[in-house]
């Protein structure tokens, strides 16, 4: 374990940069708090480094985490310095720096999956991941221009969903479209059939679009299935994107027997 | 129209207080931006006062709003002073101060309705209102302890839903329970039937509970219908409350014929 006390230490400066300007170091992410660090260890293995607040070294849950990490990867810092690194107001005294997961794209996509097209709000994004995982989705594609899946806000809204699915970020339509071996289904208000009017395919790739603009016209064009969710449109223009996704995914589950 | 230039003017100080400590003046709300002010005028009438940034006086949408308001209710302030009153970073130069709506409770509740029990997150609350309105709900009850329905964040997430429903805030269970003439339906994971297993009543009061703790045990006790939403519980513990509400309300709509 390495002890650092100075604010000006280069590693500390780099960490602060990662917190304040995550876009500059897109290959690295911060995992802040006991739950996220535990989940990372369980699903992804060792972090690049673990930062711990000195005052929490003896705390049992934190000691248990540190016991699983190579000592050379642990940085111990004074509590006051830790506070400046953590995003969380009442921080838990531990955070990980880890390599952003970049899973290999499958050659063929033949399972039920979700494609998020330029979702902007990290809370919506996290809720979409949580909801998809709850509906049994195992793989999500995130178009370039979507918010970072691993930002603190998206992780918080994800409630653990990030760790039970495979997330492919920075997807370009021309890369993914040729790999689809199941229909592409897009939600839209125009030239679309009702979600409840007839059978949904057992497997498809559902695409849910940007909060303001909806699904990219090129993807809409490619979609074999255009779905609208009937609602009181004269009173509320549209549904929140995570709500719309939930309605589609759970209606598909209902049709294919998930009543239990 | 009254022109104010000083930061220290008592009306301006009161406005700033309303923005910074809304809990101190629960009988008043702020509506920030062109859309919200238009919606207020259309659905609730005159505000207590309108504050406009001097530089926007001639802008057509803002001039149209001001033309509908008694001149004695309009405060015109320098743009820089307006910026300090608005919650919104790129503000639109107009805001209303209005009396918080306190609609009378119906003696008997015999329609399909929603009861929000101590929902904490204003984004969730706004999304719940938007979703309920989209599903055809006309009346929502908010238990005491729920976030303010009229906060800027809840209004933003509501996307206009606030103006097409009746919102009863500060509800106490002992006041509302005796008025229910339709079944009370609560979502919970324990001793509950699946949402998809059998018919839902055409009219009921749906209660959705606190993000962490769920529905108040006293309300659960009173619920004639306990509903769970089957999902991959070994992977994700629970659903976001706005997502859960959407699934219940739209499944009920589906069962009662909203396929069109």
From TrEMBL, chains A, B:
Annotated ranges, domain RNA 2-O ribose methyltransferase substrate binding: 30-104
UniProt entry tagged with the keyword Transferase: yes
A single GO molecular function term of this UniProt record: RNA methyltransferase activity
Presence of the UniProt keyword Methyltransferase in the record: yes
Pfam short name (any one): MRM3-like_sub_bind
Keywords annotated in UniProt: Methyltransferase, Transferase
Classification via Gene3D superfamilies: 3.30.1330.30, 3.40.1280.10
GO CC, alphabetical: cytoplasm
GO-annotated biological processes: methylation; RNA processing
Stored InterPro entries: Alpha/beta_knot_MTases, MRM3-like_sub_bind, Ribosomal_eL30-like_sf, rRNA_Methyltransferase, SpoU_MeTrfase, SpoU_subst-bd, tRNA_m1G_MTases_N
Superkingdom of source: Bacteria
PANTHER family, sorted: RRNA METHYLTRANSFERASE 3, RRNA METHYLTRANSFERASE 3, MITOCHONDRIAL
Family: Belongs to the class IV-like SAM-binding methyltransferase superfamily. RNA methyltransferase TrmH family.
Name of this chain's protein: RNA methyltransferase
Organism: Corticimicrobacter populi
Lineage of producing organism: Bacteria, Pseudomonadati, Pseudomonadota, Betaproteobacteria, Burkholderiales
